[in-house]
Amino acid sequence: MTKYTHDEVNKMLRRAFGGSSGNSLIKLTVKTSKYHERPISAHYRERKVDSALTCHECSVRFQVDGIFGFCPKCKAQQIRVYDANLAIIRREVEHRSNTQRSLRHAYAELVSTFELLCKRRAKKVTTDNGQFQSLEATRQFFQDHSGVDVFSELSDSESMHLRRVFQKRHLYTHGTEVIDERYIKHVREDAHLLGKAPTPSLSEFEAAADALRKVIDRIVLRTQ
Question: What is the pTM of this model?
Answer without folding.
Answer: 0.66
